[in-house]
Amino acid sequence: MVDYGKQFMLYLMDEKCYDNYFVEFDLLDGDCFRALLSKGLGLGIIAGSVLVKVPQITKILANKSARGISLFSVLLDLFAITIHMAYSFVNGFPFSAWGDTAFLALQTAIIAMMVLFYGGSTVLAGAFTVTYSALVYVLMGGLTPLNYLLIAQGFNVPILLLGKLSQAFTNYRNGSTGQLSAVTCFMLLAGSLARIFTSIQETGDQMMIITYGSSSFANLVIALQMLYYWNASDKQQKKKKAAAPATAAAAAPAATKKPKAKSKKTD
């Protein structure tokens, strides 16, 4: 039992930190604490990523509509996530540093397929699914050289910003966030912020740090829009409710007004 416990702890920390904590009982080692915190955050983000876009998917399914969701934004987001996933996998980075992108890629691909399907393009939805599956195989199956992935990762920041901010522009133009899920938006923001720390701690890769910093900024813009349009929609609902009684009162006299009887002429 002790061996299993040690093996689990050695997954979260190296041998030196294990000895510091459990042999020498030195609980104030700053480097070990940061490494353990980073690993714990990484695993927590991966666990959360399994369901992070499920509220968005269920909202589309429940309404049978993808109104207000920018397909352009979803596809750019999916491209950025997929390149980041392939780059991290081929580089051999720890799974705790990038594993959430695997689940995010799957869920984002499902959303893109649903946007096409509910937009009336059933054939395109099927073609997209096949094409994306083939792309993932090419990128992660050893068919794409690492230097090509590095170049693609360099384009991730402008692509990610363009994708996210195009969704923000769609929200602004529509005056609402449409079928966007608030839970998904805020979970994405929290995850991208935490990933800045884990990338610094576990990989030290400047490209990954810049990517997550840009993602955090774009997610923050959409999260703020979610709060703004949430309040705006509440005000509109209150105005409608307040106007309803007045409209009903104005309509009532007209509805109950009886036509005047014609007077009979007397000889």
Automatic annotation (TrEMBL):
It is a multi-pass membrane protein. Residues 257-267 have a biased composition (Basic residues). It is found in: Membrane. Residues 241-267 are annotated as: Disordered. It comes from the Eukaryota. Keywords: Membrane, Repeat, Transmembrane, Transmembrane helix, Transport. The chain crosses the membrane at residues 69-89, 95-116, 209-230. GO terms for cellular component: membrane. GO terms for biological process: oligosaccharide biosynthetic process. Residues 243-256 have a biased composition (Low complexity). Belongs to the MPDU1 (TC 2.A.43.3) family. PANTHER family: MANNOSE-P-DOLICHOL UTILIZATION DEFECT 1 LEC35 -RELATED (PTHR12226), MANNOSE-P-DOLICHOL UTILIZATION DEFECT 1 PROTEIN (PTHR12226:SF2). This is Mannose-P-dolichol utilization defect 1 protein homolog. It comes from Anopheles arabiensis (Mosquito).
